[in-house]
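Form 7-S
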Amino acid sequence: MQIFDKLIVELKSREVDNFKGWLSFVVRNYCISVIRKQKTDKKRLNDYQEHEYTMQSEETELALEKN
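Output:
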């Protein structure tokens, strides 16, 4: 659905001679951008989880040291 919306917007601003080739180009680039975004989101989540785990470990160590 998002690709279809993008196609409509792009077609209004471009003159396309080879529609089939242009369509493949737009779809491929869209898919690549989605994959890149998913990788970035996954990396951010992993970084957050590592940070959260480290913070919890440090808090546990401090609590054990107090006892």
